[in-house]
């Protein structure tokens, strides 16, 4: 029974509460109570005063049996501005225990009404919290640029490069008047600190340079939000890492590195108008495809090529600065080369699938290059190679003043000069690459080797002639017949066209008297008839006694007497002219060797001089 009464009381209280919120208040106390209730609900944190509602309901319905004493004061405005206070007293007492059983305590009613009010307040509080949270998130994701003049350099940079405004993976964009997207204009400048001599054997050279890139990024403009800040934002690699930077690489690079001791030498500057300047000190070893045909009198053109790596010509365009694009350090000096000129170039490189220098991307890529025109200094090579080689060739000619039979000194001198020159040439050739074409230094080497080898061959030739035993008869004493006789020697050369038939000694002319002794030998003597000059007589031939010692083994000694004049005078004349009666000249092998040496003393230097004329004309004028 008590349980049923409690249920009915709860239902009635709920019904009464609904009527309280729905019906307008009838008195001042009810109105104040309702206002308090609405204020508590609007505050979202206080609970509804259910005890006051129950009291109001029982005061208007005395049959419920609920009695309580409540003193309430209300303040009303009187006419004329005075204020009066009225007190309402309600004295209620419990009449019986049965009524107490039929009613619920305020705590029980409070527990019944608490959950709905709390849920409603929680929902209102949650909605308000979400809005505030979203607002806070938006403010934290995209910080304001207001009062940027008061911000530090780091704070301003952080707000400019925040993810809501800046994406370092996207290039700066600009548009033309017709809405076309324009490429980024990147201007480059180079300052050369150091330029190493070209290494011919590796076809490379090394430079230390400052490479500067300049471009405009409109996303980094802060002159409007911070008009009082006129100085650029300066930083090093940490600043560069948060910015978009054009990727430019060295196309003819072998190896490269960024210089620096504790940190990399990178300087980054952001101007108020959005101009970004990135300066980097680099060390690079670059290839130079040299042409060594005129080495060591060659001139080389070595280039440093910069190309865009990621963006093609439609997105990024490289250009040299208009003023002083490439500058050399005043103290820069080359030891082996002379810098003749230096020039820059702008071009476009076409990359396709056959040329993967830009990865797997095909297209037209912007390219910059600066080329140095270098001429090799020949002073070192003249002093260490050419002049010593000329002296070695001249020393090899000393053998022409030595006698042909002096084999030991001539061989020693010739072979030593040959070996010394080969050693000299090989030491110079080690610094050069092995190329397929002939270089000017190799032509000089071959020519000098030929002259030294020629002196050795000349000695072998004259020494061979010197050791011959027979004289050489020459038709004329000139170079043609002497050289011809040395190559094809003939023991006897006679004018066979004037020979007459041989006859016995009995058919000799009567002007010749021949006396022979009787002997047991049947010997015959054949005498040739030679044409004689006018007023000349044939010689008288006489034989000695057969029993004398000169007739041993059947030989007959013959004495020829010259009737034309004194024999001594004729021999003397023949020795002076070495000309036989038939017009032929006779030379001994020793005379021919000496004659060849004398001519070599003149021919070899003249030929070497003519070779030098052609050689130096070729290396300097062709």
Brief descriptors of the model:
36% helix; 22 strands; alpha+beta; eight-stranded mixed β-sheet; rod-shaped; four-stranded antiparallel β-sheet; single chain; 13 helices; 622 residues
What's this entry about, in short?
The protein is of the alpha+beta class and 622 residues long.
- Percent of residues in helices comes to 25-40%
Number of strands: 22
Task: Point out poorly predicted stretches.
Answer: 13-33, 35-50, 62-101, 492-538, 543-557, 559-577
Instruction: Return Rg in Å.
Output: 64 Å
Largest sheet: 8 strands, mixed
Q: What is the overall silhouette?
A: rod-shaped
Q: Which structural class is indicated by helix and strand composition?
A: alpha+beta
Describe the structure.
This protein has 622 residues and is an alpha+beta fold. It has 13 helices and 22 strands. The protein has helices at 2-22, 28-43, 50-60, 97-102, 106-141, 153-160, 237-241, 379-396, 407-429, 440-466, 479-487, 567-577, 589-621, and strands at 70-77, 83-90, 174-175, 181-182, 184-195, 204-216, 233-235, 248-250, 253-258, 266-270, 275-287, 299-308, 316-320, 326-328, 337-351, 363-376, 472-474, 503-504, 526-527, 540-543, 558-561, 585-587. The chain is rod-shaped, with a radius of gyration of 64 Å.
């Amino acid at each position: 029974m008590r349980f049923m009464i409690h249920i009915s009381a709860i239902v009635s209280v709920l019904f009464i509460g609904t009527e309280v919120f729905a019906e307008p208040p009838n008195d001042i106390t009810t109105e104040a109570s309702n206002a308090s209730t609405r204020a508590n609900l609007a505050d979202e944190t206080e609970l509804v005063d259910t005890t006051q509602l129950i009291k109001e309901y029982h005061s208007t319905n005395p049959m419920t049996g609920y009695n309580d004493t409540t003193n309430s004061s209300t303040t009303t405005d009187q006419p004329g501005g005075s204020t009066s206070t009225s007190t309402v007293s309600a004295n209620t007492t419990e009449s019986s225990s049965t009524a107490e059983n039929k009613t619920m305590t305020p705590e029980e009613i409070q527990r019944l009404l608490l959950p709905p009010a709390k849920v409603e307040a929680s929902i209102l509080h949650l909605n308000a919290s979400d809005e505030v949270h979203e607002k806070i998130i938006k403010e934290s994701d995209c910080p304001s640029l207001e009062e940027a003049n008061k911000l530090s350099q780091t704070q301003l940079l952080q707000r400019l490069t925040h993810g809501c405004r800046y994406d370092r993976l996207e290039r700066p964009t600009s548009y033309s008047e017709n809405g076309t997207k324009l490429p980024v204009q990147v201007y480059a400048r180079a300052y050369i600190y150091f330029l190493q001599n070209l290494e011919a054997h590796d076809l490379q050279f090394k430079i230390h340079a400052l490479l500067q890139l300049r471009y405009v990024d409109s996303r980094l403009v802060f002159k409007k939000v911070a008009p009082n800040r006129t100085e650029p934002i300066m930083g090093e690699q940490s600043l560069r890492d948060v910015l978009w930077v054009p990727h430019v690489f060295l196309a003819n690079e072998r190896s490269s590195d960024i210089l620096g001791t504790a940190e990399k030498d990178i300087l980054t500057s952001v101007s108020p108008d959005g101009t970004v300047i990135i300066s980097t000190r680099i060390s690079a070893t670059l290839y130079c495809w040299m042409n060594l045909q005129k080495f060591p009198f060659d001139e080389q053109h070595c280039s440093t090529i910069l190309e865009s790596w990621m963006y093609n010509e439609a997105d990024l365009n490289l250009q040299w600065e208009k003023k002083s694009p490439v500058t050399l350090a005043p103290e820069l000096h080359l030891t082996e080369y002379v810098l003749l000129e230096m020039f820059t170039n702008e071009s476009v490189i076409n990359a396709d699938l056959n040329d993967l220098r830009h990865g797997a991307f095909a297209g037209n890529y912007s390219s910059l290059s600066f080329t140095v025109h270098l001429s090799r200094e020949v002073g070192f090579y003249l002093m260490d190679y050419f002049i010593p080689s000329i002296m070695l060739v001249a020393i090899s000619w000393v053998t022409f003043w030595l006698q042909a039979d002096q084999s030991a000194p001539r061989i020693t001198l010739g072979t030593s000069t040959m070996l010394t020159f080969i050693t000299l040439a090989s030491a110079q050739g080690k610094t050069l690459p092995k190329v397929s074409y002939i270089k000017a230094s190799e032509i000089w080497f071959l020519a000098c080797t030929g002259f030294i080898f020629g002196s050795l061959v000349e000695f072998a030739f004259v020494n061979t002639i010197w050791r011959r035993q027979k004289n050489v008869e020459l038709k004329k004493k000139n170079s043609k017949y002497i050289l011809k006789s040395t190559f094809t020697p003939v023991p006897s050369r006679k004018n066979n066209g004037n020979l007459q038939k041989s006859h016995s000694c009995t058919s000799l002319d009567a002007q010749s008297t021949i006396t022979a002794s009787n002997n047991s030998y049947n010997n015959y003597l054949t005498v040739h008839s030679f044409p004689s000059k006018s007023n000349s007589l044939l010689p008288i031939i006489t034989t000695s006694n057969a029993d004398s010692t000169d007739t041993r083994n059947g030989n007959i000694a013959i004495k020829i007497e010259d009737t034309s004049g004194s024999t001594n005078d004729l021999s003397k004349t023949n020795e002076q002219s070495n000309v036989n009666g038939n017009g032929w000249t006779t030379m001994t092998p020793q005379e021919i060797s000496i004659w060849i040496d004398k001519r070599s003393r003149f021919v070899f230097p003249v030929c070497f001089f003519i070779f030098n004329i052609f050689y130096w004309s070729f290396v300097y004028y062709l």
